Amino acid sequence: MDPQDLAHGGEVYALARRLGIAPENLLDFSSNANIFARPITESLLREARPPFEHYPDSACTELVRAISEHEGVEPERILPGNGAADLIWLAVQALAPRKALCIGPIFSEFVKAFKAFNIPFDIIATSPDKEFKPGTEERERIWESDADLVVLCTPNNPAAVTYDDPRGILAMLRAPRLIIDNSYREFLYGTSAYEANHYKAYLPYVRPGVSLFTLHSFTKFFCCPGIRLGYIMGDRLQLARMAKRRSAWNIGSQAQHMGKVFLDNLEDYRATLPELRGALADLARQLRRLDTMRSNHIFEGPGFLCCGLAGNRDAGQVTDKALRTRLLVRNCDTIPGMPPGFIRVRTRSNEDNALLVGFLATI
């Protein structure tokens, strides 16, 4: 199998087949799902009774109503999809930009979609030496771009940067369409950045005439990668056009049902954040002590760490070696806009984290 086919984190099944072992025998640090929310999701799935005797509701009426209440946005501005990746391809196809601009790093599905639909694109890469925030040179390139679609991610995956005050970067964007990937926003709950990074919060700062869309995923915060569910918010007319391009019943009844259940239990999930943040900070402290890591290039994301390797170590070789010890870490060399020599890891239990730290100390 081509390594690019395994570019995403969490490709547990394919990698387990490669090693000839059961998936549960791999310790996955490559997925960004909130491991501390897993017991909640397991319990809710055991109790769930999703309908099965009819075709799914193609309009996702109850799910859209629940998302609308959660986001404080009219239902007409919400379009669910079979995961964020599904919505990326749908949006790129429907918006059909003449040229796209990505403020990197950026989720690889955007680039895949641009290539598939023969859409020219540029990536403006940001530097880890500036905490992956656009500097003067990057801002000038953004301002001068002739792209008619701009894509950026906040909180960023894997660079971990969050635009706490997005007014400055929004003022630089002159393209008529803008997609902001907010897939990790819910991890920010309880901080000022949570309120700043929201569809309604962006609107006053977007230049006149710009159509804004925000992308959201259930996967990470609710720890449900196997339940493909996400949604996009934005212009009513544009979303209506996107909806007409979807295949019938592309969101199953179980996903619709569980999405509503997850939102009904949102406070329980939010209660996991202190433990998650504590474990993440502790893991970051341990990694900064290792000679094999660049201590000034360990960035704390909303639920993961973006880690620079010391001594010009090759990220692909490190991830391959980790796999041989049955640890999955994310090779960031396959993420568009990332500099070489970075890996991404999520935090798990203290016992699991100790295995990861022990491995990284030996490379």
Q: What this model shows, in words?
A:
With about 375 residues, the chain is an alpha/beta fold. It folds into 2 domains: about 120 residues, Aspartate Aminotransferase, domain 1; about 220 residues, Type I PLP-dependent aspartate aminotransferase-like (Major domain) (Aspartate Aminotransferase, domain 2), CATH 3.40.640. About 35% of the residues lie in helices and about 15% in strands. The protein has 15 helices and 13 strands. The strands form 3 sheets. It has a 7-stranded mixed beta sheet, sandwiched between helices. Helix 4 runs parallel beside helix 5 and helix 13 packs parallel to helix 15. It is globular. The two termini are about 25 Å apart. The N terminus is likely disordered.
Keywords:
single chain; 363 residues; alpha/beta; Aspartate Aminotransferase, domain 1; Aspartate Aminotransferase, domain 2; 2 domains; seven-stranded mixed sheet; four-stranded antiparallel sheet; 15 helices; 13 strands; 16% strand; globular; disordered N terminus
What can be said about this structure in brief?
37% of the residues lie in helices and 16% in strands.
